[in-house]
Design a protein that fits this description.
single chain; alpha+beta; 6 helices
């Protein structure tokens, strides 16, 4: 089977399944499941053509269980379903990457990921933090700093961004690395908060940065 590149690797419709080489794996292909927001790898499962077709039709990740010998929709029993955002196949068309938004732990042991436990790695933690902020805004807790600051309004939250920006600049020039990292963390937290208060997402900031990079390198 010829390798496919670019946008042609995206699997959106039942017709796209024909591009996948199920025969190489005896009727099954590996399905790497990744959080669409944090980019954390959640689990590795397997799909046959029927499971991939059901996933496309339902919008929920459905797999082939090698131990059970049949289809398995994640969350049927636990309720921890995986809402599918995108599916792409690899260069050899014999594996797929399934990007999802999970409704609970992906691992049967109750952890976010079967590989890395609770925390999204690297910059992916910013998306996880954004989700935590969302939760504080939607269900305010009297003891939550986030909810308390948001209740004071956008003007006060924006003022905190300004204050933290100044603190970062001062720490850059006059304090040690630990202090600078702490101030930078404060700035990033408050910036995420004001973005969500304006109904904007970190992904949208990344889109702007990506577009600028492409303009300058393209």
């Amino acid at each position: 089977m010829n390798a496919v590149t670019g946008a042609g690797r995206r699997i959106r419709r039942a017709d796209d399944i024909a591009a996948i080489d199920f025969a190489k794996g005896g009727g099954l292909i590996p399905a790497i499941v990744q959080d669409a927001d944090t980019l954390q790898v959640l689990t590795l499962a397997y799909m046959d053509a029927a499971a991939l077709g059901e996933t496309l039709e339902s919008g929920e990740a459905t797999f082939f269980s090698r131990s059970r010998g049949g289809r398995w929709r994640k969350g049927e029993t636990s309720g921890n379903r995986l809402h599918v955002v995108d599916i792409v196949h690899d260069c050899d068309a014999d594996a797929v990457l399934v990007k999802v938004r999970p409704l609970g732990p992906a691992c049967h042991e109750g952890t976010v990921s079967c590989f890395e436990g609770e925390s999204a790695p690297g910059a992916g933690f910013l998306a996880a933090l954004e989700a935590i902020i969302d939760g504080r805004l939607k269900s305010p807790d009297p003891g939550s700093y986030t909810a308390s600051l948001a209740a004071k309004g956008l003007h006060k939250a924006a003022q905190k961004v300004g204050e933290e920006g100044v603190e970062v600049a001062l720490a850059t020039l006059a304090e040690d690395d630990e202090a600078l990292l702490g101030e930078a963390a404060d700035l990033m937290f408050h910036l995420l908060l004001v973005l969500r208060m304006r109904a904007l997402r970190l992904d949208e900031v990344m889109d702007v940065l990506r577009a600028r990079h492409q303009q300058r390198t393209g």
